[in-house]
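User: Can you recover a sequence for this backbone? Please restate the input before giving your answer.

Assistant: Of course. Working from this structure:
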């Protein structure tokens, strides 16, 4: 996975986190420079861990802080990414997929790119979580989900409750 894909994947997760009210509120406290209470709830601890895993926040001696290095990398990547309109980037406007390629090879490449941006490793996502992340790329999340499963890029649990990485590359 390229650095640009990794950064895009992080920002898809950031966008999904910002949709979550409790994660957004916790991030706001940190960004405002306020101290977090000593007795954080399980949900708040889980939200902090998710922000840390995404890479937007990190823990320092005096508390939680914004990861400025991630912001710098993102801005640097965006300027390089903007100039590159070859390959699969010709199907995107920024992070938004504007055209699903007709050619099977191009379509597969685009879907691998999206898959790598929305899920990683042994992560298992509920459908709502996957939809939040896919919505960053395209409003028709059902279409993207269906293609990702049809191309074996994502595996759907037999009961349809969750998704994980498939074996196709």
């Amino acid at each position: 996975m390229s650095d640009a894909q990794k950064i895009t994947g992080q920002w898809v997760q950031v966008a999904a986190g910002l949709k979550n009210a409790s994660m957004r509120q916790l991030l706001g406290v940190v960004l405002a420079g306020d101290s977090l209470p000593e007795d954080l709830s399980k949900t708040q601890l889980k939200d902090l861990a998710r922000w840390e895993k995404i890479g937007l926040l990190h823990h320092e001696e005096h508390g939680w802080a914004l990861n400025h290095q991630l912001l710098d990398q993102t801005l640097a990547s965006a300027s390089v990414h903007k100039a590159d309109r070859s390959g699969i980037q010709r199907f995107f406007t920024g992070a938004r997929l504007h055209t699903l390629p007709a050619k099977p090879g191009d379509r597969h490449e685009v879907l691998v790119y999206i898959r790598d941006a929305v899920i990683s490793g042994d992560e298992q996502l509920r459908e709502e979580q996957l939809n939040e992340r896919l919505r960053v790329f395209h409003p028709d999340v059902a279409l993207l989900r269906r293609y990702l499963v049809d191309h074996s890029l994502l595996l759907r649990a037999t009961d349809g409750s969750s998704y994980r990485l498939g074996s196709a590359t």
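That completes the design. DSSP finds seven helices and seven strands in the chain.
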